[in-house]
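Support request from a user on the community tier.

User writes: "When I paste my structure tokens into the form, the page sometimes reloads and wipes my input. The last time it worked, I copied everything first. Here is what I submitted, just in case something in the input itself triggers the reload:"
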């Protein structure tokens, strides 16, 4: 059975000018990747080093009726806000994309009590992370247009109520360049109004995954993620997040995880094989026999990110998962048509 070392809490993933590698169950007090001493061979100015750091915060929230996905990204050359709402019963999708040249705002360096927002005419997107109080909240307010229905949402992750164990990782691309990720899965409460409908996120049947990430990503970087949440036959809440990227030594440390009733199981590295067809299945497996999933996309949204400046692209597919995942205790968690999403990210910036 796969296992990995869970390290004691550290103040920062950077120590004595060098990134450390590992997995933790507590967030860092500060994540400042500019504290790395000479991440590149040449002594580059601070502004150029800062430009190479890409960062984002994202949400995946769902209940029996709806899926809500939201992401704020700062790629330094540009910033993006992406919001997707999928109505399961009516098979209806609402999408909002905003791309802003430049990187004026930056995401917080800590999650203890910090916020970030993006606003413009007819649009408001705010994230408040308050881990000192065990909460993460999302606020959205998007006014209607001729082609888009209005959307208002407020959702809160309660990380304290069920004693949810999060995961923080720091992974290396090279000796002095790294990526950091914090992931937490919990019950969600709140409300969503769109298209004249009012939907309530009841924490008894609503779950979500929150991700905070920063990294000195390579100039050309490809990553694939898979995420899903649900309830098993014993009505236990579960959720998972798996990815295939290009970090070093993924067996020892990676960002793959399963949560079962708030208990964290770090998962081994996985291989994600995708069909060439747009709606083809994804096969997600590992070498330890802990992850054996098939993702069947039902709806795909391709979001080009400033194609005039860069060919970077982000694609998200909503669909269902079937298969099984093993917990740290060796218990099989069968997945039968569990709703989730698959994401593909090509970065060249």
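"...and here is what came back when it finally went through:"
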């Amino acid at each position: 059975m796969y296992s990995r070392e869970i390290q004691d809490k550290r103040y920062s993933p950077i120590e004595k000018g060098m990134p450390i590698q590992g997995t933790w169950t507590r967030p860092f007090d500060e994540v400042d990747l500019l504290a790395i001493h000479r991440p590149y061979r040449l002594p580059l100015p601070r502004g150029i080093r800062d430009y190479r750091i890409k960062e984002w915060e994202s949400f995946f929230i769902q209940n029996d009726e709806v899926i809500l996905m939201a992401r704020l990204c700062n790629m330094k050359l540009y910033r993006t806000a992406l919001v997707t709402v999928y109505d399961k019963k009516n098979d209806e999708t609402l999408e909002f994309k905003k791309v802003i040249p430049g990187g004026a705002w930056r995401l917080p360096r800590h999650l203890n009590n910090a916020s970030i927002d993006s606003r413009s005419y007819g649009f408001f997107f705010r994230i408040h992370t308050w881990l000192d109080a065990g909460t993460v909240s999302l606020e959205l307010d998007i006014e209607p247009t001729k082609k888009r229905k209005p959307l208002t949402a407020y959702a809160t992750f309660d990380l304290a109520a069920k004693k949810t164990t999060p995961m923080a990782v720091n992974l290396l691309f090279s000796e002095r360049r790294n990526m950091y990720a914090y992931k937490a899965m919990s019950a969600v409460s709140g409300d969503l109004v769109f298209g004249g409908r009012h939907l309530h996120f009841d924490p008894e049947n609503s779950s979500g995954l929150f991700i905070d990430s920063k990294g000195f990503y390579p100039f050309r970087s490809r990553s694939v993620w898979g995420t899903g949440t649900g309830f098993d036959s014993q009505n236990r809440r579960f959720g998972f997040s798996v990815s295939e990227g290009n970090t070093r030594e993924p067996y020892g440390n990676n960002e793959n995880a399963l949560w079962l009733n708030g208990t964290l199981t770090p998962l081994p590295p996985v291989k994600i094989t995708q069909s060439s067809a747009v709606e083809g299945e994804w096969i997600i497996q590992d070498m330890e026999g802990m992850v054996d999933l098939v993702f069947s996309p039902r709806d795909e949204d391709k979001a080009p990110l400033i194609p005039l400046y860069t060919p970077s692209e982000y694609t998200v597919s909503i669909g269902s998962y079937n298969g099984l995942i093993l917990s740290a205790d060796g218990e099989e968690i069968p997945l039968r048509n569990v709703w989730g999403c698959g994401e593909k990210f090509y970065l060249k910036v």
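Agent notes: The reload is a front-end session timeout and is unrelated to the input. Helices lie at 46-51. Residues 14-348 form one domain. Escalated to web team.
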